[in-house]
Amino acid sequence: MESSSFLPTEHLTLPDHPGVYKYFNVDNELIYVGKAKSLKKRVGSYFNKNTGVNLKTRRMVKEIKRIEITLVDSEFDALLLENNLIKKSHPRYNILLRDDKTYPYLLLTKENFPRIFPTRKMIPKKGTYFGPFASVKAMNTVLDLIRELFTIRTCKLDLSPYKVAEGKYKVCLEYHIGNCQGPCVGLQNEEAYLADLEQAKHILKGNLGVAKSYFRKEMQFHAENLEFEKAHKMKEKLDSLEKYQAKSLVASPSINNIDVCTLVSDDKSAYVNYMRVKNGALMTSKNVELKKKLDESDEQLLLTALIRLQDQFQSDAEEVLLNIELSEPIEGLNVVLPKIGDKKKLIQLSLKNALYYKKEKALLLGLNEDKKDRVIRKLQQDLSLTEIPDHIECFDNSNIQGTNPVASMVCFLNGKPAIKEYRHYHIKTVVGPDDFASMKEVVGRRYKRLLEEGKPMPKLIVIDGGKGQLSSAVEALKELGVYGQMPIIGIAKRLEEIYFPGDSYPIHIDKKSESLRLLQRIRDEAHRFAIKFHRNVRSKNAFGTQLTEIPGIGKNTADTLLTYFKSVKKISEASEEEIAGVIGTSRAKTLVEWKEKNKGA
């Protein structure tokens, strides 16, 4: 690697060789760093008057007073060096990743009986760092798995041999509950401890296959030696590892070690999603925004983001999947643009995240809108809807052990409840507690009625429930011939997962997002309305059954009372004269006598 310095007028002496160039202004301030396959052609293009460079580039060129170059062996090396220089100096005209977060790592300490714990500070002398992780949740998931599989100590004791030999320590609660094997009192030797730690390191690196093979061999060994209890423990650990992999699986396990990077852009910015995948499992997913400085091409922006993100997340990927074709292959960078199969699905998944991030950023620009419009516009962005959901209808079922099944529909206009538009339904065609069939019935009845009356359809239908309830609602819309005319989603209660018809994987909206809070409010309102109606129906039915058991009070008389007084409570509070005005003196007297007799019962 060689470095040289030139004045701008001397650029024709530059070599036709890969390298990095640095531009300095009159104050000797570094204002731009670039990389090139041919320094002579690339740097020369800035000063060629026949080249139609844009205004921002011309402004930068006017500031250049000195150029430094560094020769490297390949264009890929130039990419890496450019990244390091930009990260160190943040030149004014270079593309910057708009991301000032510090990310969590897991540190494997350098000490006797090493520990594993989370940190956001990297001090290399303390041990080996794994990560960074795109979120604390992702990091904790891996850490919890490791602590489930291995007995790694969590205490901060100095477990050097002479300290342990002094016998100053006592086992703690972690030992008694089985999370530690007591190395502090010599109950576990360091060799066995490090053997477990070696398998934990494979998991931290994403090499789950190595750890699975280890547990499988241990299980077979103990079984052959008739140590069935130990063999069973190894099987449980293997099952835990396989469940973890199954949860994070996004592609075929045959996809070993790849990075995925996709980009979408507009006039001012580019939006990039970067994913690391090992053994078909998603290890990292990160979105970043790049502000354009000199009208850079999408190819240049994507390469810049890829190299910086690979450096940030310490990638050792053997292959990179992109959604943009490079004008020329780059030696040292194995790039693939998949057309079919699991790798193509990964590109589509990454691109979906990049588009979502772009829409999310675009929404933030509309902060001058009032809150009402902002929330429903945010919901539009989060759900990728073609229209603003200013008319939302949500359905919920209610029954207890199959009795008195009812359903509700609540309506929100411009993000606010439209109580006059609320509807409740008695389930008519379903016998027993069948939530799916009940949902199909009420959705069909609602939109059949709207079609017959020529009233506008909602801009979004929300189903309180998961895939089953959503599929039932979709069937009703298909039978009416209106499926596809308005979007429909299901919202599952437990994890607040959003399902679209036909999608295998749910969407997770940020828990702090205003749009998710709006969906939760609508869902909760539908649930409240359904429960209230169900209680009324159940109470009426129970009281109506009691009424019909009174001599002289039949079903028609009970229905007449409930219709007039509207509620059971009002009937119980009514005087004999009021009741007589509805069902006559004789029946009223009979009813009042029965009420007095059963008061407090």
UniProtKB/TrEMBL annotation:
Residues 264-477 form the UvrC family homology region profile domain. The keyword Transferase does not apply. It is found in: Cytoplasm. SMART domains: GIYc. Keywords: Cytoplasm, DNA damage, DNA excision, DNA repair, Excision nuclease, SOS response. Residues 16-95 form the GIY-YIG domain. Gene3D superfamilies: 5' to 3' exonuclease, C-terminal subdomain, GIY-YIG endonuclease, UvrC, RNAse H endonuclease domain. GO terms for cellular component: cytoplasm; excinuclease repair complex. GO terms for molecular function: DNA binding; excinuclease ABC activity. Pfam families: GIY-YIG, HHH_5, UvrC_RNaseH, UvrC_RNaseH_dom. One of its GO terms (biological process) is nucleotide-excision repair. Interacts with UvrB in an incision complex. Belongs to the UvrC family. The UvrABC repair system catalyzes the recognition and processing of DNA lesions. UvrC both incises the 5' and 3' sides of the lesion. The N-terminal half is responsible for the 3' incision and the C-terminal half is responsible for the 5' incision. This is UvrABC system protein C. It comes from Algoriphagus ratkowskyi. The gene is uvrC.
